[in-house]
Design goal:
Strand content of chain B: under 5%
Oligomer: heterodimer
Order of helices and strands of chain A: HEHHHEHHEHHHHHHHHHHH
Strand order of the largest sheet of chain A: 2-1-3
Structural class of chain B: mainly alpha
Shape of chain B: flat
Largest sheet of chain B: 2 strands, antiparallel
Distance between the termini of chain A: 57 Å
Order of helices and strands of chain B: EEHHEEHHHHHHHHHH
Distance between the termini of chain B: 52 Å
Strand order of the largest sheet of chain B: 1-2
Radius of gyration of chain B: 28 Å
Chain lengths: ~425, ~325
């Protein structure tokens, strides 16, 4: 039978068209996936673009004017540098520096840094992104020469070790994220201390003890619903309960640490507790899955040789579920580290430059610092925000990598 | 412990006879009650949310300046002259969410279909983690991206006069990127759960890959996909930092996506960012807005769970 007279003829005539359509849509689906990845790269490039670039710095007292007997500032001996400090700083400021650490004990480099920070005092007058710096270099030079004849043009990275080490400051060139990083660590420590035992306990109860009655069904549904509540609602809850109603506890007044009349509940403790409520449902759900994955035969074997229920859970179920529980907890914690909105509502301080020292300290966190800096209209703060974002992303990426390694190395397959 | 005297068994080994009955062990009971408390704790969280939001909202609506009807239908939110109409906040929440979903639904679904139906397992193993990274980036970073990249881009395309510096379009677009991986990942799970036999049957009848994907697999996974979309919407409504950074700093009753406005979440963040005094009407108003937000997202989440439960096709 020749193909032309086949009953399949209409089918085959249609075939090329159907295949063309298939190929077309395959490309559409593929490009949708690629677009997602494109956005990720655009986002990362945009942040890198903000971290590097030209800045025009104008000095309050240009270094050239500080030269002594024709010797430029950079080559002056330590004694001359100390004399400069003495001349230009007020007596009290000079003595304060001396009290912190006597000048005789300071190195020359340290004194030189002091001269730059306190006497020369660079200020950012204009800044450019990396892309602008690379493509319009000549234009930028011309603009600086014309508009700010005093200014010095430098190519800088906003992310340096100094950025991590320095506390918050009112000048962009001196500002750093140390206060914010410490604030984040304190907050997260409290979150973990509260949420981990509560979350794992709840998961054990739901998986090992709870019977299928209305109360436990209610608890389960409730946890699922809580996981979908927007984070800002937790912030409002934290504001009403931890900051306001429990002010005496969260400010430390109850322990006699602060004067009750000036007590303020906007502390690390309130923030940590708020974030603990936020991540609790996530930890429970992840831990439940990990516990469920432990095979029933292990429990039966343990019970069969006479172990009690808790002995079974403690010695057999938990050790086997631990990698899964830890992975889920790390993921929940990395969510908490990046949270901004609830902490703004709970009242993270925006402009503090001293490090938090106890759960009752005022605080700021890394994402809040980024929010503050991004909201300022001047360009230099946004460059700092980009640098802080890189630090935050590095932190989160290493946490997530740990979670993946844990999952791959220690998860047992039964 | 009562123990009978040790005797000697029939086979000559010593046997310890114990009374075999279930004894209440205090330790076990204490541990079980502690665990129950941990499990029950989440109920307190919910009660706390409902109680606090309700109490402060009640105070808000008791204020003479506030009337419930004006709250729900008023088109101006200006607390300093006692105008509390929530519509400007609701419309901008709705517009940014709509823009976000118009990006996230088509792209997320297409990516899910590609990953589940077309991609080889090697490709899937590389692409899926990348999409998950996208979902793990803190939202404040997206806010920075919206303000520093998308807004300048929109302004250079549509003109500086048309697009304001703070605008709903850029916030909405970036929110779409944020929700894309969520929709993609949940939909992909739903598509993967469709049994292989259905696909093989369709191939056996001569269907192309596209026809199998669109006419067999997607309809079979529809309940999971719908749930993914609704969870995405609920996420968009509750999203805060992107809109706080990129959308604007003042309530504005407008439907123009290129203008600045303030969403419910953005308003709460701005008001509470300053030092808020506990007895002010501003303080009470964030609870009223929060209550509204809580109900919207709760309803969406419940609908999504219902859809999954009721319309799920069960294959065995």
């Amino acid at each position: 039978m020749s193909p032309s007279s086949s009953p399949l003829e209409p089918f085959q005539e249609n075939l090329p068209h159907r295949h063309r359509r298939g190929t077309f849509w395959q490309w559409v689906f593929f490009s949708a996936t690629v677009i997602g990845i494109f956005f990720l790269s655009a986002l990362l490039l945009n942040i890198l673009d903000g971290t590097l670039g030209y800045v025009a710095l104008e000095a309050r007292r240009p270094p050239a004017t500080l030269a002594v007997n024709g010797i430029p500032l950079e080559e002056l001996p330590k004694e001359e540098l100390i004399r400069i400090l003495q001349t230009y700083l007020s007596a009290s400021a000079f003595n304060k520096l001396n009290d912190e650490k006597p000048f005789e004990e300071r190195s020359r480099a340290n004194v030189y840094d002091l001269v730059i920070a306190r006497v020369v005092k660079y200020e950012v007058v204009e800044s450019w992104s990396l892309w602008e710096s690379l493509t319009r270099s000549a234009e930028i030079r011309a603009q600086v020469a014309e508009e700010f004849p005093q200014a010095e043009l430098r190519f800088v990275s906003w992310l340096t070790l100094e950025t991590i080490r320095r506390p918050q400051s009112s000048e962009a060139v001196n500002a750093g994220v140390r206060t914010a990083i410490l604030g984040s660590l304190w907050t997260i420590a409290i979150t973990i201390l509260v949420a981990f035992p509560l979350g794992v306990g709840a998961a054990i109860y739901l998986e090992e003890y709870a019977r299928d009655d209305w109360l436990n069904r209610l608890i389960r549904t409730n946890i699922n619903n809580l996981a979908g509540v927007p984070s800002i609602i937790y912030g409002i809850l934290g504001l009403a309960i931890f900051v306001r109603a429990l002010e005496r506890l969260t400010s430390g007044a109850i322990f006699g640490l602060v004067d009750p009349t000036t007590a303020n509940g906007r502390t690390v403790l309130s923030a940590g507790l708020t974030l603990a409520l936020l991540v609790l449902p996530l930890i429970i759900i992840n831990a439940q899955e990990a516990i469920r994955a432990v095979p029933q035969s292990l429990r039966k074997a343990s019970l069969g040789i006479g172990a009690t229920k808790w002995q079974t859970i403690w010695s057999h179920v938990l050790p086997n579920a631990l990698p899964g529980i830890l992975t889920g907890t790390i993921l929940a914690i990395s969510r908490a580290i990046g949270e901004t909105a609830p902490l703004v509502v709970v009242g993270a301080s925006t402009a503090i430059s001293f490090d938090p020292t106890s759960p009752f300290s005022k605080f700021t966190t890394l994402p809040i610092q980024i929010y503050q800096w991004t909201s300022r209209p001047q360009g230099e703060w946004r460059h700092l925000a980009a640098a802080a974002i890189l630090i935050l992303l590095t932190l989160l990426l290493s946490l997530n990598a740990t979670a993946i390694v844990l999952r791959n190395r220690f998860t047992k397959r039964f | 412990m009562m123990r009978k005297r040790n005797g000697v068994g029939a086979n000559g080994y010593p046997v310890r006879k114990e009374r075999l009955h279930k004894r209440t062990r205090i330790g076990e009971v204490v541990i079980q009650s502690l665990l129950f408390f941990a499990g029950f704790f989440s109920i307190f969280t919910t009660l706390g949310i409902v109680y606090e939001l309700g109490k402060e909202s009640l105070l808000f609506f008791r204020t003479p300046a506030v009337r419930l009807w004006d709250f729900l239908t008023g088109t101006a939110w200006q607390p300093h002259i006692n105008q509390f109409g929530i519509l400007p906040l609701v419309t901008s929440t709705f517009i940014t969410s709509a823009i976000a979903m118009s990006i996230a639904i088509p792209l997320g679904l297409a990516a899910a279909i590609y990953l589940s139906e077309y991609a080889s397992s090697k490709v899937r193993k590389t692409l899926k983690p990348i999409l998950e990274i996208l979902a793990g980036i803190p939202t404040i970073v997206y806010g920075y991206f919206a303000l520093m990249f998308v807004t300048p881009l929109l302004r250079s395309i549509f003109g500086q006069d048309v697009v304001e510096i703070y605008n709903m379009a850029s916030g909405g677009l970036v929110m779409g990127i944020l929700i894309l991986p969520l929709v993609a990942s949940m939909s992909e799970d739903a598509l993967n759960a469709v049994p292989r036999a259905l696909r093989e049957a369709a191939y056996g009848l001569g269907a192309t890959r596209l026809e199998v994907a669109l006419k067999i697999v997607v309809p079979a996974a529809l309940s999971g996909i719908a749930a993914a979309i609704i969870v995405g919407i609920s996420r968009a409504v509750g999203e805060t930092m992107i809109v706080a950074v990129a959308v604007g700093a003042g309530p504005n009753f407008t439907f123009n996506p290129f203008r600045g406005a303030e969403t419910m979440t953005g308003h709460i963040v701005r008001i509470s960012g300053g030092d808020l005094s506990y007895d002010s009407i501003d303080y009470n108003s964030i609870f009223a807005i929060g209550l509204m937000l809580f109900f919207i997202t709760l309803t969406l989440n419940i609908i999504s769970q219902r859809i999954v439960r009721r319309f799920r096709e069960v294959y065995e």
